[in-house]
Amino acid sequence: MALALALGARGQGNTSPNPAVGCVIVQGGRIVGRGWTQPGGRPHAEVAALTQAGDAAKGADVYVTLEPCAHHGKTPPCAEALVAAGVKRVIYAVGDPDPRVAGEGAAILKRAGIEVVSGVLEDEAARAHAGFFSRLKDGRPLCTLKLATSFDGRIATATGESQWITGPDARRAVHGLRARHDGILVGAGTARADDPQLTVRGRGDTHQPVRIVASRRLDIPLTGKLVATAREAPVWLVHGEDASADLRAAWDGLGARLIPVGLAGRQLDMVQMMQALGAAGLNTVFCEGGGALAASLLDAGQVDCLVGYTAGIALGAEGQPAIGAMGLDRLAQAPRFSLESSRRIGADIEHVWRRSAP
Predict the structure, then answer these.
(1) Which of 121, 263, 313, 343 is paired with 86 by a 20 to 30 Å CA distance?
(2) Model pLDDT, residue 199
């Protein structure tokens, strides 16, 4: 199952709206088939592994990270494919909460006389499929907020200089994180100030996540790197319903996808935005700032994971803070996260935090 989880990780960021599943088929103590969900979500991991195993799948044990699907969609159910292949036993890590599956995959296998075992490395699998589960259960993608800061929590000097606070090892790690997410999100201020490309670089020929800019008025330049590459890697713009019709038409003409959402006060409604991104099929979103967007997402309870890269440099109170104003009066109001891991990465420190239970 650990191998199946490792295989499934190869598809992260490249399978939405489907989950990134891994599958291993074992016959007589020997691995005869391996598979993971392919780009675009098809074929599924079980089908890929069965194809590799061929006739050797008959009487074999199948290890899969998620309960095999039971519904007819763009592909036939994986549970039926396993039955047709004549496998002996199916071991899956965690159940599928999709109401079209939700135990029916296991039931199809059992009715065919196949032994079914569940719960093997369940916690690890639940973490691996957390984005898919979040979209199904809560209607929104799992959101990771990344902050690259000075020791005193600043993302730029008072004049806006920010390249580079952290070193090349940390920046390479960020590109790896980008590649494992369905979408990369920034605010309008970051889009204006940094003219970011928001693509995965330095990792060979890799899938590019959707690039998302949250901009109430669509007041971001109609030139720059996002525009230049809009037809090569997807660009989505989340905007308010009061955005100029001319700007909407201009961005539409450049190939961007426009997603209107309501307002919460004077800002975009973060809950509506995340729900809209979930409805569009994204399982995971990687937010790279800026400070106002980070504060809005945290205040709305939409951040599930924090990833920080901290450098040994101090910029002082006049530097730009990593997170904007949140209007907190008491510590009890602050969102809390639990430390999951920390490590030295080059000259910097990487620390990962998960949202604490309320």
Answers:
(1) 121
(2) 86
Please write the tens of the pLDDT for every residue from 98-136: 878 888 999 999 999 999 999 999 999 999 999 999 999
The H or E element containing residue 268 is: strand 267-268
Render the burial of 268-296: b for 16+ CB within 10 Å, e for the rest. Answer: bbbbbbbbbbbebebbbbbbbbbbbbbbb
Q: Looking at residues 168-177, what average pLDDT do you find?
A: 93
Quote the CA–CA distance of 276 and 90 in Å, as a whole number: 36
DSSP assignment string, 99-127 = TTTTTHHHHHHHHTT-EEEE-TTHHHHHH
pLDDT, position 4: 98
Tokens, residue 27: 């016959």
**Model pTM?**
0.92
> Among the options 46, 67, 104, 288, which is catalytic?
46
Q: Is 103 left (phi over 0), alpha (psi -120 to 50) or beta?
A: left
Question: Is there a contact between 241 and 260 (Cβ–Cβ < 8 Å)?
Answer: yes
- Residue ranges in the chain assigned as alpha helix (H): 2-9, 45-53, 78-85, 104-111, 122-128, 130-138, 168-179, 188-194, 225-228, 245-253, 270-279, 291-299
User: Catalytic residue at 46?
Assistant: yes
SS3 for 303? coil
35-62 tens-digit pLDDT: 999 998 889 999 999 999 999 999 999 9
93/106 Cα distance (integer angstroms)? 12
Instruction: Report the 10 Å Cβ neighbour count for 216.
Output: 18
Q: Is 149 exposed, middle or buried (0-12, 13-18, 19+ CB in 10 A)?
A: buried
The residues that bridge with 24 in the sheet, in sequence order, are 34, 63
The answer to whether 307 and 352 have CB atoms below 8 angstroms apart is: yes
Mean pLDDT to the nearest integer, 235-239: 96
Asked whether the beta carbons of 311 and 348 are under 8 A apart, the reply is yes
Take residue 156 and report the two structure tokens written for it: 């730029």
Nearest CA to 142 out of 12, 307, 259, 274 is that of: 274
pLDDT tens digits, one per residue of 2-25: 999 999 999 999 999 999 999 999
CA distance 262 to 240: 6
Q: Is the pLDDT of residue 206 over 90?
A: no
Asked whether the predicted pLDDT for residue 205 surpasses 70, the reply is no
